[in-house]
What we know:
It contains two helices and no strands. By secondary structure, it is mainly α.
Amino acid sequence: MDKQKFAFDKINFILLAVGMAVVIIGFILMTGPSSTPTTFEPDIFSVRRIKVAPVVCLLGFVFIIYAVLRKPKRV
């Protein structure tokens, strides 16, 4: 099969997978206990959930955009 016909090469797919993994890690960092109508959970305002996790997700999305826009090396 001719590799010239594909828009992505192996490196692009690896970068996409790494970016998706970083985004998933960011969403996992956002999880935690929630407040109920009877009890307040102060952890919903923790630094991990408010600042760290969104930045990790943003970096993952930027990495995915780079992986999509990266031009494969033609042999």
